[in-house]
Amino acid sequence: MPEQATSSPSRGPRATGARGESRLPLSRSRKGEDAGVVLPPEAGAFLHYARVEKGLADNTLKSYAFDLAHFQRWAGDVPERHLLVCGRTELQEFLLWLYGQGLSARSAARHLVTLRNLFRYLRLDGLRADDPSEGLESPRSWRTLPKYLSQDEVERLLQAPCQLRCAPQSLSWALAQRDRAMLELLYASGLRVSELVRLRDSDLDPEMGVVRCHGKGDKERLVPVGQSALRAIMSFVRTARGRILGGKTTPFLFPRRGGAAMTRQAFWKRLGAYGRQAQIRQHLTPHLLRHSFATHLLERGADLRSLQTMLGHADISTTQIYTQVVSQRLRQVYKAHHPRA
Question: Do residues 189 and 110 both lie within one domain?
Fold first, then answer.
């Protein structure tokens, strides 16, 4: 499986709307904004505040900028749609416009969250006396339960890199060893893919059996790592990592050729290839392994607070969604096997 830098799969431009408007591209530019859209000063100040004062992660800031660029594209030069004067009605019209552009309820809800945070900032800074998003119902009135892999699917996925036909000690063999170690760690720890690809040598403590990672807002946490993942990582470090580096040095635990950190997109692409090889029918993403990690732990009796710490959730309500997954699974088992179900 040759390794190369990849980007998210590009999707063609959407069809033109009934009024001749060009629909939203689903891919993001480097700055996370629609090409050619200039954000108003208030939006720029909010992004600066979110980065400097709140310490939010780069990916969160890119999402904010992307959503605000959509709002600005809809608002245009219409006075009543300006951020400092728009009201509840205008926000409802914006959400309807997003639906008209083909966005899902989940995406529209994320745009509304961005606007809520923006208007809180504007009130805090004295630029608005009100918050037009207050009380506005989210387009997503219920939460979709996370999907996850079965234990058999996880095992097939973890074995996929080992089943590649590679000459021993070749570069392809070394990359497969690295990928096996990354998959093992991803499932063993529930890390986000952005945390996984940024791991450094010094972040792993094999004697303590923990890995230190930096999550959203650059918050640091320690996550335990199982013996199977540790064996895969240490085997990769001893036998294959040097083959990938080719004499170069790097602080990254799982480097690409030449020593650079792997990109999220490159790992996503390789994960998808392994999923197809393992004949996993679900659309495979790094977050699906994170969901599997959380669900399998709860099925075996892990407590919610410990899981919250390991996942790096700021709010336990985010973690509680997995209890619904487990409850749904128990109901399915009951209906399938109980004689009076």
Answer: no
